[in-house]
Amino acid sequence: MRALAALITRDIKIALRVGGGALIGVLFFLTVVVLMPFALGPDLALLARLGPAILWLGALLASLLTLDRLFMADHEDGSLDLIVMGRTPLELACAAKALAHWLAAGVPLIVATPVLGLLLNLDAASTSAVALTLLAGTPALTFTGMIGAALAVTLHRGGLLLAVLVLPLSIPVLIFGVAASQAAISGPLSFGTPFSILCALSLVSFVIGPFAAAASLRQGLD
Amino acid sequence: MRLSGRNVRCVRGGREVFSGIDFETSSGEALAVTGPNGSGKTSLLRLVAGLLPIADGAIELEGGDPELTLPEQAHYLGHRDALKSALSVMENLAFWVDFLGGKVFDAKMSLAAVGLDHAGELPAAFLSAGQRRRLSMARLLTVRRPIWLLDEPTSALDADGQTMFASLMREHLARGGLIVAATHTPLGLEARELRIEGAS
């Protein structure tokens, strides 16, 4: 437990300090969402209708943006060798790293959502619905994305590959995330159904992500 | 405690690096792995550390902790220092102490032993190559592991540093430790030699 806590606090510390990835994700999210109204024009009804989808797309791309560094940074400076050799099971270490990444890069996106909802003409109830779906769904993005990040370690310049590998895995999360938000805002579907599936996707990713990432890290050692 | 390898073969990227390597070393002994560049000295250390698959043969540890695997009882000091530039010297060391766990000694004393006690609060980004090496060595001192796997441990160290590290290695051997070091320069202590010529 102490080892995992140390790993989580270290990763969060690095992400929050100068040159860390935490702020980059939020700034990217901000940029995407701020530019949307300019691209779509001043149609308030259209903006409100597209709002949840725009917020979800922005959050998805922002969380992918910093994900490729998840294992790459540790691989480059040799830390990964020591983590693999350590007494902590690699699966748990992977899960701890993903959790730290979500806390440092995912949570700020959720916190920023209410502010950005204003730009998209979403009322308070709609914004909180989107924020709730992001809270339930972004862990799935991080934990499935981790598999791609682990694969990218073995291939040099794997950054682009990460996007290609991870995007198909994140499509179900996007579908049910946006569906749940739309259901909460305009109906006619009930909010509970897509939201439960979204939560289920997150739970499945908690189980599969660490094992798949650890297996691919072990395979890729060189 | 006895570490031995029988008929070890290493393949990387579909190409044989070396084969038929036998070695043996036991508590209180150092094994110096020598050979030309590219002969597979680092690969051998990584095989022992469990960071590369063994293509053929076996590496065994007798008399260690039966609950732990060989890599879990070993320290690996590689080319890369496993340090984070964003963290301070003390934070880097404290992280590895917490993460690696096991028997732990005072981190401040270890920093003093490697000559970095004045730099505890300095971000690791400001350290020179030699100082980074010294900080990695502090990790070996703080977290006690019986087996040290060292890859060119004295590269980037000044003359004082090399003498300092030689005496640290001697202390480790006196405690019943075991060292396998890949090196081009003399280690500064008595050691068996394992010469690898590499696949031709």
Can you tell me the CATH topology of chain B? Answer: Rossmann fold
| Count of helix runs of chain B | 5
> Count the strands of chain A?
0
CATH class of chain B: Alpha Beta
CATH level 4 superfamily of chain B:
P-loop containing nucleotide triphosphate hydrolases
Pairing-aware structural class of the strands and helices of chain B?
A: alpha/beta
In the sheet with the most strands of chain B, the strands line up as: 5-6-7-3-8
Estimated radius of gyration of chain A:
18 Å
- How many angstroms does the end-to-end distance of chain B come to? 34 Å
How does the overall form of chain A come out from the CA principal axes? elongated
Describe the biggest sheet of chain A?
A: none
Taking pLDDT < 50 over at least 5 consecutive residues as the criterion, the unreliable ranges of chain B are none
Tally of separate helices of chain A: 9
Number of domains of chain B: 1
CATH architecture of chain B: 3-Layer(aba) Sandwich
Mean pLDDT of chain B: 88
The assigned structural class of chain A equals: mainly alpha
* Main sheet overview of chain B: 5 strands, parallel
Number of strands of chain B: 8
Low-confidence stretches of chain A: none
Question: How would you describe this structure to a colleague?
Answer:
The complex is a heterodimer of chains A (222) and B (200). Chain A has 222 residues and is mostly helical. Chain A has one domain (2-219). Helices cover 85% and strands 0% of the residues of chain A. In chain A, helix 2 packs parallel to helix 6 (90-119) and helix 3 packs parallel to helix 7 (124-154). The mean pLDDT of chain A is 88. Chain B has helices at 41-48, 89-100, 107-113, 129-142, 159-174, and strands spanning 2-12, 15-26, 30-34, 56-62, 74-77, 147-151, 178-182, 192-195. In chain B, the strands form two sheets. In chain B, strands 5-6-7-3-8 form a five-stranded parallel beta sheet, with helices on both faces. The model of chain B has no long low-confidence stretch (mean pLDDT 88). Chain B has one domain (2-195): Rossmann fold, CATH 3.40.50.300. Chain B is an alpha/beta fold and 200 residues long. The termini of chain B are far apart. Chain B contains five helices and eight strands, in the order E-E-E-H-E-E-H-H-H-E-H-E-E. Chain B is globular, with a radius of gyration of 17 Å. Chain B is 28% helix and 26% strand. Chain A binds chain B through residues 2-3, 5-7, 10, 13-14, 17-20, 76-79, 81-88, 221-222, and chain B through 12-13, 49-53, 68, 71-72, 74, 76, 78-87, 91, 94-96, 98-102.
